[in-house]
């Protein structure tokens, strides 16, 4: 509920401090006195756009502050906590400042906020209905929420939202999983080709070393064979072979051993060398016998070496790294092959979807039942507020496969007169008719409505007499459940208010060329005079005052 409104330097208001009460408050005054300025200022505090032209002439800035009681809006208290915008317990302070340079600043409980945050909080606090004001009931989201509240399905609507979010989360996980499976399959195919290519080389580090050694040997076989032949010739087969020379020297020295025993050591060394030489000659002969010139085998080795180098270049590694690459590919293939299809993910998604569809089915049934009842009651109310023959309807447009708000879109439709087709509430031509329809809806749904403060700007446009009195009684009835304010030009509506404020213009004491807007809380006698003014013409008579007093008395006694 709105408790206090402070307005400074706004349009023709220099400074205004207003304390608000529960129930039904009416604002009256001459045309142009500034009645709508109050609503414009409040809307600014609630996040509507503003500009420097709204600053009072000669001032640097305009400032509007609104204090609300949060005890009637528990949802806003939770929202403030979620956004770290808490203030005094049970209170919310909305503040807006407009500077002459066009800068605008918004505050909630002293915290700087965006206009979007101001509007989000404002929508939970105040609903303004009028020809030139924001119409919350024109928004389909507000219509849907109001119908859910009227049908007692708020908790079911929350369940639908949670079920939808759960379903979509599982659906997202499943589609991501399927994409991963597709990517894995592509990777598997590439790895299998790589594995086949690497494994077909039959390559190992030991085999690589042997292959290189064989290649070196075979590519130099002719030279090796020539060297072996030459070695055998010089060591044992020629007339001056080393073995012959050593044997000759040894024999000569043995001949003189009897003359000098120091030759014994030398002879023993030569005999040992002769044994070692014979072993070498034997091994060299064996080597020569097994040394084979095989050009075909050499070509095979060179082809294999070329194949190994080609694969290594292809995968940008050295031949020595090929075994490690093959091991890496093998391990990755084992990982991919181990990820078998998991049907439980699809099953969980289907379960979540079925749960969502069950909730939406129940919600749709509740909405349609409540929509029928709301249409009957609003249509009946329209007959009493100057729209005889008018019809109100709640339409449901299916939405497949559904969303967080259910499986249909809710739309309020109306035909303001008999014979006219039903049209969306947002497209009703007459602002006055729209205000009165909104009033009828608010009265009927007042038991379940969540916005604590309702403001009606000239809902009496185009009506009078008995219909005006009916509208006044509707507003008073609504005021028993909510805080209601109404700007009106009709005495029938003004007389039904629990309290009445008069808006008037006065001359600015500081500048006689400027006017200021003032609001006065009227006591009983002052209310009689104000309603007398609204009833009478140029000349006010006692009978007019008596009529005004009678209207006030009747308004106070009507339920």
List descriptors.
6-stranded antiparallel sheet; 559 residues; rod-shaped; alpha/beta; 6-stranded mixed sheet; 19% strand; 17 helices
How would you characterize this protein structure?
The chain is of the alpha/beta class and 559 residues long. The chain has helices spanning 35-45, 74-82, 115-125, 140-150, 154-199, 205-219, 221-237, 242-255, 263-290, 295-314, 322-338, 343-382, 431-444, 465-479, 491-494, 524-535, 542-557; strands spanning 2-10, 13-19, 24-29, 61-69, 91-99, 104-108, 111-113, 126-130, 391-403, 406-415, 423-424, 453-457, 483-487, 499-508, 511-521. α12 (343-382) packs across α13 (431-444), α13 (431-444) crosses α14 (465-479) and α16 crosses α17 (542-557). The longest helix has 46 residues, at 154-199. It is rod-shaped, with a radius of gyration of 51 Å. 31% of the residues are buried.
């Amino acid at each position: 509920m709105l408790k206090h409104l402070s307005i400074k330097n706004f349009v023709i208001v220099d400074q205004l401090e207003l304390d608000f009460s529960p129930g039904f408050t009416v604002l009256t005054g001459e045309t142009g006195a500034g009645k709508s300025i109050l609503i414009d200022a409040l809307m600014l505090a609630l996040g509507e756009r503003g500009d420097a032209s709204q600053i009072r002439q000669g001032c640097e800035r305009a400032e509007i502050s609104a204090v609300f009681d949060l005890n009637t809006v528990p949802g806003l208290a939770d929202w403030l906590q979620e956004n770290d915008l808490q203030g005094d317990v049970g209170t919310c302070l909305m503040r807006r400042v407009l500077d002459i340079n066009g800068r605008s600043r918004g505050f909630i409980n002293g915290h700087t906020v965006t206009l979007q945050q101001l509007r989000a909080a404002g929508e939970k606090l105040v609903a303004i209905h009028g020809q030139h004001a924001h119409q919350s009931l024109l928004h389909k989201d507000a219509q849907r929420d109001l119908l859910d509240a009227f049908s007692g399905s708020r908790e079911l609507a929350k369940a639908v939202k949670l079920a939808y979010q759960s379903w979509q989360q599982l659906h997202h996980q499943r589609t991501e999983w399927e994409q991963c499976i597709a990517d894995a399959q592509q990777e598997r195919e590439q790895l299998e080709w790589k594995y086949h290519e690497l494994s077909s080389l039959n390559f190992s580090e030991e085999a690589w070393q042997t292959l290189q050694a064989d290649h070196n040997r075979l590519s130099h076989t002719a030279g090796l064979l020539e060297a072996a032949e030459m070695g055998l010739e010089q060591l044992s087969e020629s007339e001056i072979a080393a073995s012959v020379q050593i044997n000759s020297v040894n024999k000569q020295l043995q001949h003189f051993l009897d003359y000098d025993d120091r030759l014994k050591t030398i002879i023993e060394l030569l005999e040992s060398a002769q044994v070692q030489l014979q072993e070498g000659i034997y091994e060299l002969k064996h080597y020569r016998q097994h040394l084979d010139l095989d050009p075909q085998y050499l070509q095979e080795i060179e082809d294999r070496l070329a194949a190994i180098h080609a694969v290594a270049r292809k995968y940008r590694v050295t031949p020595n790294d090929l075994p490690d690459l093959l091991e890496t590919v093998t391990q990755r293939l084992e990982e991919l092959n181990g990820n078998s299809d998991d049907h439980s993910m699809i099953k969980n998604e289907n379960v979540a979807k079925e749960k969502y569809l069950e909730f939406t089915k129940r919600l749709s049934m509740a909405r349609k039942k409540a929509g029928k009842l709301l249409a009957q009651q609003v249509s009946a109310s329209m007959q009493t507020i100057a729209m005889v023959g008018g019809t109100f309807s709640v339409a449901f447009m299916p939405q497949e496969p559904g969303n967080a708000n259910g499986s249909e879109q809710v739309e309020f439709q109306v035909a303001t007169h008999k014979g006219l087709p039903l049209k969306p509430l947002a497209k009703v031509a007459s602002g006055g008719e729209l205000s009165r329809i909104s009033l009828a809806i608010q009265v009927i749904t007042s038991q379940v409505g969540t916005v604590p403060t309702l403001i009606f700007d000239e809902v009496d446009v185009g009506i009078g007499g008995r219909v005006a009195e009916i509208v006044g009684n509707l507003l008073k009835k609504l005021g028993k459940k909510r805080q209601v304010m109404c700007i009106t030009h009709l005495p029938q509506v003004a007389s039904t208010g629990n309290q009445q404020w008069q808006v008037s213009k006065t001359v600015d004491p500081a500048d006689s060329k400027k006017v200021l807007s003032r609001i006065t809380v009227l006591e009983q006698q002052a209310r009689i005079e104000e309603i007398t003014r609204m009833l009478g013409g140029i000349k006010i008579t006692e009978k007019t005052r008596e009529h005004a007093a009678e209207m006030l008395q009747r308004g106070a006694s009507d339920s």
